[in-house]
């Protein structure tokens, strides 16, 4: 199970068992104590960052990086297996999230929804011998949805509550929010999500612009003076923020180019580097709060909810404190409470989607999706050396019926640590 980030490759190892209830399936994930991150080689990291900063990359570069990332992921899996004393030959299935470099969820008239995600699954399969599922977004876009966010299914199964509204805020490079009403009000059947806008992408770009490392230099730049005029101007004039969900965004909007624009606005007003970073950070937290209030269930409902936070943005303490100040009565917590470490959430999400793709079971669709039907089986399969054995296992796991028979909906996900 692989989830790529620019700084490293997060890998988790899990096994799944299914327990048939009267009208649904309860899946238990175990052995989750084994997860790790393998550092991205500096050369590849530099090439990715360079590509993300460019408006266009030549086809030869995209092709080369697609293969390069596949080899990188495969090498990371071998390193992970050696560290944790497991045999790659015993792994049934790999789910790879890849490295997203471009995502067009709402194209101009006459164009199509599309994405480019690097890390060829056939390379991973060839270098590990393990059946691999990758490229999850394309099937979603093919039926008219936007290709992101992708994790409402996992979040809903883990967080739904009998009586309380659950809100999950994932602050990665881009921020995603998911609302799961109480079970009494529909639960996972009524959940909805969207990308709220900026996450850590622009903050990290500002650190790099000033020759700083966002991982090590952050504490020194928490207390700059915020230029509230710029924050208000950005919140008021941002086209994406004023667009109603469903919607998704990526670095094309909230990446280096936007960060440099804000840096220029701050420089014009005489802001120091610390002031500039603090201003971009406040814009990020303010945009999240704005989106919750504009398109969520209302301030009172949010203040009475449980808010779970995950993603790299958790390390930016000012982001979290800003949100806590905006919603002081809400109960904030970390995704770790689910039994899945926050840093491993996306890797687990891609692993579950890989399993569902192999079973041939479509994922539930959030209520605010552009298209509710048809559901899609996401991901592209690259068969491994044990393909027939793995297919036989999947048939036994999912049921022996034809068509959709024998594939009940998954309504519960229980996480158990290895004994």
Automatic annotation (TrEMBL):
Task: Enumerate the Gene3D superfamilies for this protein.
Answer: 3.30.420.40
Family annotation (InterPro entries): Anhydro_N_Ac-Mur_kinase (IPR005338), ATPase_NBD (IPR043129)
SUPFAM superfamilies annotated for this entry?
Answer: Actin-like ATPase domain
This entry's Gene Ontology molecular function terms read: ATP binding; kinase activity; phosphotransferase activity, alcohol group as acceptor
An example GO BP is:
amino sugar metabolic process
Q: What is this protein called?
A: Anhydro-N-acetylmuramic acid kinase
Species name: Sclerotinia sclerotiorum (strain ATCC 18683 / 1980 / Ss-1)
